[in-house]
DNA sequence: CTTAGGG
DNA sequence: CCCTAAG
């Protein structure tokens, strides 16, 4: 056992070796054999009392490395299973190196309560920290840009550029620019016109006097607004002065099926940007404010500086049938990987969430949330995933209380509330005792057209955790904060509608049905910006919503934060940020490939190869999707003990699993995990083991008795074959029987 | 932390 | 999927 571990460590730590042997799995196998990783071997050793062969293994590893690499490659490619092993990133590199380093350097997290930020405290506090630079408050982050980091960075860049253009084109294509009234224009023009033909036609069917837009629509509108919170707009102060004006057509329904869409990260892109030019400029890759470093900010169209009114044009049929919230991993984040990665790597978002193990596990490695902080120990571990998950688990109980508490707090922070006030009545402002308030809204209603017009003066943003070198400039700090905000708004944002303090969950209800009518006192209508996590039932019930109803005019603050020097000449900051960021996305991507490729036979080669560079959303299987989402998706389960959501294995995953098991054999689930599901953070080796168990069972029962997504018989056959083979091996207890996976495969 | 198994 | 005993 020990030897095994040691060897594994070596494997993971020795970058050089890793690099020399892309196909480390192969030689690792060998090592395992030597080190007696497999049961047979272990057993054999025990039986034969063979002394551990640590040295032997190690030496063998190096000596045979080359050979192994070659032969294994041949073997794998020839064996019918095209496991295009992507160059693996040594665990050591994937882990939270940055974090580890940070810790060692006595960095301190600098948490900005966005709320406060918005409330205008940011500058005071933020700058204060910088200025006073008490070692405690400032974290110095000095990451070394090792080759891996660079590599990753490059990859990220590439991908991003692709994404960007892709996204832009997407936008351009799907959303012919619609110009709509801007705030201040006559009632007619100020209506948010939803151009969805369906909606329109349906609208006709409805009583014009009915306020029937669905909540989803409302949400979309807000998402649109949120999107406006772009650097440009902020910089220009547009956001500040411009209250977002939304007018919901009295009779716009028919978005039902799109409802889930509102949770989709793609939402922001659906916003109709007023000036077409902007879109185009974006597509050209112009990055007004941030330059290349901040890609995510350029991922979607920005609102013109003028901060002109805009409208939401929501129609896109959603490809995501899954309620964006329920399946965070799969559905929600597809479109925004870049955002997530970028934003999250540097910003630790405190997602509320009493999410249990899941959430942390899903966070990107670069993420460090409060909760994570608590688990510091884990971060030093090379095996992040496992560690994390486990840690979570083990720590979970102990931290129940804490979690609960933080969860609540976070939730509060996570909500941005909106307040509506009759147009004529000035925005109502409640005491923001908590300072958590985020939004101030004004609602203007015109009974004449039955539109409920809302004007959002400001939003509260979820709490953010920001880390920045103490050598960073104030400007960079501002920039960072802005970025953080953007990350949230752009990627992990959801809008919740509160009515009378209660969350209105049914997106298909019309406003009228929900009791939100133009002639109602809308003071009870509120909106909340929430992390784009899977909104779990539990989280939806917050009776305390009222707390969020406080209204604070945060306009000013916002403006102040945003103006960060667009020209960030703070190499340090950027560098560190990038570093932190790059590995993340790279990892993700890499894993992506890994995953996609693993299934070799199954997934079309094209797909696989293309995928690497493909736009994020393309995620084929799903396991990967899951990986992404995790980042900003804090699954919140009020009940700490919430069971993990069930994620049925896709055929692709099954194939990957089968493939891995064929090669590694049963009983080495951790390796299987590493090999085939390294990126599927939601799949633990236990899960894989269980899956295999069920697969074996499934394979042995009649097709009629099988349930769920049918697994190709071919795979099941392989399962049985592999199972048989490996059990036999185990039975034989033959130590020196190398994995005859090939044999199996060739059979 | 991993595995193996039962639930 | 969860939980736990064992190693």
TrEMBL record:
Q: Where is the composition biased (Basic residues)?
A: 91-100
- What keywords does the record list, in alphabetical order? DNA-binding
| CDD domains associated with the record | SANT_TRF
Q: Where is the composition biased (Basic and acidic residues)?
A: 183-200
- Name all HTH myb-type domain ranges: 641-700
Q: Pfam family example for this protein?
A: Ubiquitin_TPR1
The segment annotated Disordered runs over 72-102, 178-200, 296-340
Q: Which residues form a coiled coil?
A: none
Keyword check for DNA-binding: yes
| GO molecular function terms attached to this record | telomeric DNA binding
Composition bias (Polar residues) maps to: 323-333
Q: According to the lineage, what is the superkingdom?
A: Eukaryota
Domain named Ubiquitin-like: residues: 452-522
What sequence ranges are listed for the domain Myb-like? 641-696
The keyword DNA-binding is assigned to this record: yes
Cited PANTHER family: TELOMERE REPEAT-BINDING PROTEIN 2-RELATED (PTHR21717:SF70), TELOMERIC REPEAT BINDING PROTEIN (PTHR21717)
**Name of the protein:** Uncharacterized protein
What organism is listed for this UniProt entry?
Answer: Oryza sativa subsp. indica
